[in-house]
Automatic annotation (TrEMBL):
Signal peptide: none
Protein name in UniProt: DNA primase
GO molecular function: DNA binding; zinc ion binding
Record-linked Gene3D superfamilies: 3.40.1360.10, Zinc finger, CHC2-type domain
SUPFAM superfamilies (UniProt xref): DNA primase core, Zinc beta-ribbon
InterPro entries: DNA_primase_Znf_CHC2
GO BP term (any one): DNA replication
Amino acid sequence: MYLDAQEISQKLTQEDIIKICSDLGNGMYEKDNEGHLIFCTELCHEDGNSMKLYLYENIDSKMRWIFHCYTCTDTYDVYELVIRARRKQGITISFPQAVKYVANISNNVFYKKDHVIQEEKIDDWNWINRLKSSQNKKSIPQLSEINEHILEVFCPYPHEVWLEEGIGKDSMKKYQISYWGEQNKIIIPHRDIDGRLIGIRGRALNQSDLEAKRKYMPITIQGKVLKHTLGNNLYGLCQNEEAIKRMGKIIIFESEKSVLLCDTYYQQNNFSVAVCGSNITDTQCRMIRSLGVSEVMIAFDKEYENAKSKLAEAYYNKLLKLAYKLTPYCTVYLLMDTEDLLKQKDSPADRGKEILEKLMKSKIEVRKEE
């Protein structure tokens, strides 16, 4: 007999999850307006110190509780959290050891009989073979589609906050930006390259949400979180694919707002996308490569004040690691502010078209990693 990971996961409560996180080193948590628990990214990241590790309940899934980290955009179950937390502590454990750990901490011990093991092994090998086949085809995961009628809930008018920040009315209309008075949020629909609605994020306007570092979050309607795996899509690609291919280049920002600003600046020549985080995933790299571009510009938010500081150096090294994912396939540049044109946490697009183009002109080419 062996421990039943699925059954143990189904029986876990929020209190069990809190107990597990506490035992892993940090049980501090907050709750958002929908009651979701939020933990510190210290649990899974070497330098994590923000409350951006969200816990979602997915009753229809084999694994009831799912964590989503809004720092790295990864999604995983409680067993993977244990593995990552232990790895961060210098301890390597296997999946069965993680299951045993969760079972012991939560006092939820359920077993499967041995005769099921062979069936599951066969299923696993079939799955591995299918995975190898799909990897050979370099496929990009297709995300679940959301009913378009949901957008009718929101008020289809631009919000003054973004108008004041320089985003034009036509650009907001093009990207279907709207407003939800019930939660006081600017609504941002996300579409895949084929135009399918795959997620809806909200830009919080309430001070309490901003202070809790919940500025950009998926919205919840009637108990359903309208989220998607951010790392499996590029915001703005649906609208800008033609311009990107025509111009042979792409600029990558962190947030949706930067794409909207670029649409206001360049309209039909907007060649920008957003990764909606501070990482470029392997899937996003495959999407970029599939566009056939010869030039990539990484234009992430400024994370330093002094361009000669150690913080700026660390930021540069972080961007280098991302750039190396693409240097074998195209010319990659970094946008670095060395002249104090931006404030800390600014996107290169935040201070207007002229500043953005000045940063583009002084872009730094990244050589292939040796």
